[in-house]
Amino acid sequence: MNPRSFRNERGYALIATLLVLLLGGLMAAASTMFSIVELRSSNHYKTGTVAMSTAESGVVRVLGEINRKGVWNLQTQLSNGDWASVVEEWWTMEGDDGTSYYATIETDADDPVNKGWINVVAKASSGAARGVRVRFERDIVVGFGALVAANPNLQTFVQNGLGSASRPISGLDVNMDGTAAGTGVTRPAVSTTTDSVVDTVVAGIGANEEERYLGIGEIPSVYNAGGPSNTDITALVNAFIAPPNTPVTIPAGGSPIRSVGGNDCGPTLGDSNNPRITVFANHTSSSAEIRLSGSACGAGILIAYDPINITGTFRFDGLIIALGGIRSTTASGNPSVFGSVWTTSDQIMLNGNLQIRYSTQALNLAAGTLNNDVMPRQAKVTYWVEDPDLVASLVYGGS
Predict the structure, then answer these.
(1) Residue 332 near residue 313 (C-beta atoms within 8 A)
(2) Who has greater pLDDT, 21 or 317?
(3) Element (H, E) at 230
(4) Which has the minimum average pLDDT: 24-33, 159-168, 339-348, 373-382?
């Protein structure tokens, strides 16, 4: 063999080896780069998913707060600052300081009273961001609970053992004939807006009386589940009695005691066929009382500025707003309210056999007396869309 030829072959082998090594290095580098890109893509997808999940959580929270109060006039409520505590600031998700969301509520341009939008932008710790817009509208009438204790400074709740377990304070939705409504709606027996009022109510329920308080959650069903505040109820009462509504007012008169009793079923307080808005005007006497007794009945909306005392077999279907408080002072008879009772008083005394049963049907009857439909209603989602423009304005726009 020619020595020079052998040396040439060895040179070619070296070049081939170097080319193989170079190719292998390039392939390894490409593989590493692909892995990094894939990892980054996977991480971006993950953080984008986290951002979207956070935005959705923000929507759920804001919608829940809206429904704690209900919507009766969205435009007015927003101008009054309702729900200001949960919007227009960045909220950090628990357990992840780098993940947060920002929410706003606005009215719908076409129907600012009944419809609105929830806008939420969320940021993940990596910087990924997502935005969603959710349209909602007023839906079913809501009473919040069988009994709504709206006063945040409730001093006294007395239920002293005179009642029967068959005469409940119940948040289980029923029709006015007592049959299950089939709506799937369950409210607290007693709904409040503060935990301290929950404690006051539970402490005031007599021994062996807990089983009368039926509804959502454990027995006794007493929960901080929301509802209108004292200020809200005052505003609603003013809306209920203002035109175009046509309330029937029972004047204060001379005696501090005004009674509806006997067989007065319809003429004074309306009935299920002819519900009405009835207002007992405020009496100046500190001993004033509205006595609803006998086999009398009423239906619609009953508003009383003085304490209401319900006894006998009195029956009311709809909404009672007891601004001066509610009492039931005897265990005789079987008085009933189907619908809901709201009170702004700092004292509630249910010493008798009164049953209050939450009823959407009865609340719809009450709503039917209003010509301007200002009954609180739940918000229902009607449209949901991801909106990159929200991200651009609220995240990158520096809001």
Answers:
(1) no
(2) 317
(3) helix 230-241
(4) 24-33
42-45 long-range contacts, CB within 8 A, separation 24+: 43/126, 44/126, 44/128
Extended beta strands in 203-267, E state: 213-214, 222-223, 248-250, 257-260
Give the DSSP H/E element, type plus range, for residue 37.
Answer: helix 3-69
Select from 294, 291, 296 the least CA-distant residue to 265.
Answer: 296
Q: Provide the pLDDT for residue 43.
A: 43
Q: How far apart are CA 149 and CA 221, in angstroms?
A: 13
In CATH, what number does 1-141+377-399 get? 3.30.1300.30
Q: Is the pLDDT of residue 47 over 60?
A: no
The structure's pTM equals 0.85
Asked if 148 and 390 count as a contact pair (C-beta separation under 8 A), the reply is no
| 378 in Cβ contact with 67 (< 8 Å) | yes
Cα angle 275, 142, 73; round to 5: 90
- Domain spans, the chain: 1-141+377-399, 147-375
Distance CA 115, CA 324 (A): 33
Residue 387, both tokens: 């909106």
Distance between CA atoms of residues 216 and 213, nearest Å: 10
Q: Which amino acid is at 362?
A: A
Sign, CA dihedral 329-330-331-334, equals: negative
Would you state the pLDDT for residue 266? 87
Q: Which structure tokens are listed for 242?
A: 């203002």
Reduced to 3 states (helix: H, G, I; strand: E, B; else coil), residue 200 is: helix
- Here the tokens at position 92 are 């950090």
Helix, strand, or coil (residue 139): strand
Residue 291 banded pLDDT, cuts 50, 70, 90: very high
Amino acid at 261: G
- pLDDT, tens digit (0-9, with 9 covering 90-100), for 326-337: 988 766 678 999
Contact by Cβ (8 Å): 146, 131: no
Residues 54, 127 contacting (CB under 8 angstroms) = no
What is the DSSP code (8-state) at residue 74?
H
What pLDDT shows up at residue 4? 46
